[in-house]
From TrEMBL, chain A:
InterPro entries linked to this entry: ImuA, P-loop_NTPase
Gene3D superfamilies: P-loop containing nucleotide triphosphate hydrolases
Source species of the chain: Microvirga splendida
Domain of life of the native organism: Bacteria
Lineage start: Bacteria, Pseudomonadati, Pseudomonadota, Alphaproteobacteria, Hyphomicrobiales
Record's protein name: Damage-inducible mutagenesis protein
Amino acid sequence: MVTRREVIDDLRRQIERLGGAPGARKSLPFGVSVLDRHLPGKGLTLGSLHEVIEEGPASEFAGTATFFTAGIAARLKGPVLWCLTRRDLFAPGLMQVGLHPDRVIYAETCRDADVLLLIEEGLHQKGLGAVIGEVSRLGLTASRRLQVAAEASGVPALVIRRWWTVAERDLTQLPTAASTRWRVLPVPSEVVPAGGLKRGRWQVELVRCRGAEPRSWILEACDAQGRLALPANLADRQDQAQIR
Amino acid sequence: MTVIKQGSRRLIASACPTAQRVGLIEGMAVAKAQAMVPDLHIIDSDPEGENASLRQLAEWAIRFSPVVAPNPPDGIWIDIAGVEHLFGGEEALLKKLIDRVENNGIHARAAIADVPGAAWAVARFGKGGIIPSGRAVDAVSTLPVQALRLSPETVSAMHRLGVERVGQLAAMPRAPMVRRFGHETSLRLDQALGHAFELITPIIPDEAVIASRAFAEPIGRLEDLQLVVRRLSDELCQTLEKRGEGVRRLDLIFRRVDQKGASLRVGTAKASRDHVHLAKLFDEKIETVDPGFGIEEIVLIANHTEALVEKQTVAKGIEAEDESVDLSQLVDRLTARIGEDRVYRLAPVHSLVPERMTRKISPLAPLSGSTWPENLERPTRLLDPPESIMTTALLPDHPPVSFIWRRIRYKVTKADGPERITSEWWLGDEQKMIRDYYRLETAEGSRFWIFRDAPMTEGGRWWMHGFFA
């Protein structure tokens, strides 16, 4: 007697095979159980394209998105290629999420089309930890190319969507072939009675994900090892216990 | 001053700038010069020696472009088409070239133009520098007719007729001009104005490793070109293997049916003789080569090589244990696309002034392990230059309770600071600089890095400098 669960599992495997994805794709857990349980590979699949978009008042500078992305890269092993289009990145800031300067190679260009080529070039190199790119225009074809390149080498591509004009910001809403799209938004952090600033707090939203529903979480910002965490005063809330 | 013998007369062949200043010019009789300056330092000119050293200089100039040719008696052609971006543009290339030559004690003038003839004229008779594309005619027409590389007899004939400037010559009806001054004049005029093509035959250093292929039938398809480049690269690497060397700089020269040439150059971060990798570096650039009516010959030149020792990594019973990734090939591919100075790592510098905290180093520089001081709360994005903001603070030395940046008011709910950063007198900072940095969190949760450039009592102003989130 085949149970319903087995049938579903079998169908899942078939679909995975059709999608050209290798059966046991490696993934990087976030270390936050609610997040990892929700994602199809129990974490962020390596060897695929992920988009990070920032919301909020200063979102054109993508300060939060940079922390979020660098935090993911910091927890991966191996050198990281960072493809830049602007010169506003401040490298000492990356050390706070554990991305050591020895690990990052920067490639700088001023054109969007070139950045995509650089990212792709990086994705062909096996053994890289991750390739991070700052892109404002990412079409379906271009993102598909990156996705295929990432699948072939197993190097994750993390794309920070940057924008300068309102028209460019609207472009970030268009669909791409990325396997996940994240939207991060800074939210007020916990009040400290003595004054001063504690760890930041973000609303991390999974806007699009192959094989999972969109969902959003309130999380504590990356720590010195690049790990996210569930806020202490939210972790014990009743509705969290009921999830899955 | 050097002297050349012409029959029984001894004439000045060339004179140093000091000699030129006292009125000694080329072609003057030595006896007359000695009458003007009695203690003249005279050397017999040695045309062969000069040509040899000119060739040496040309070989040295190959570091700037694959297509370099000596232009006796006193010039060098450098075809910079397609290589200027490696040096940060034409201006930077020209400056670097002149600086390097003058450091070697050679007085040089250089010009960049669309056509060799115009560059020749402007370097010798004009101000030198860069002639914008399409402006060769304007630049050349005001120059004297000597700038056309004509024989002294032709020039003196022109002077007798009152033709002093190139522009005058160009305005003359062509047929009578050719009858009077010869075809040579017409050709030189066209070459200077960019109407006639002029071939630069590149020199190839004697010690360079070469692989070349000439075709019975000219080829032009992209796939064919790529295939030939792969084969040439394979051949070249076999030669290199015998010599125990690897390539650092590789030039690819195309000769077209119509005698025009094109050239490509790639560099590698580490000596390499991996023929697949080397051929791949050209893949993107070959698309930019215009084959015209077909390409007759392709030459691949390794003009900068280094000793390369093979290392055994895999063998029976030995596993490759070294897990570190060899990034040199990736760096080569990136460099071939965007240029050398745009691929880098940022090394920490021990300074607290934000603008000074990083230093660009080579992407393959040895890992230092050093980093910035720990627990330094710094933003990920800097605003350069900082933008002025309007603030409201309750007490003079407190962080602001609200601020206006880019015409939007933000309410500050939490703040941390101040952290004072001052100018570093030990690095020779002239101006006194004080910055009190605060980290702010607004009511929406965004975090900003702002500073005040002086204590409040001294009328300090507030600036937005960075973004945490």
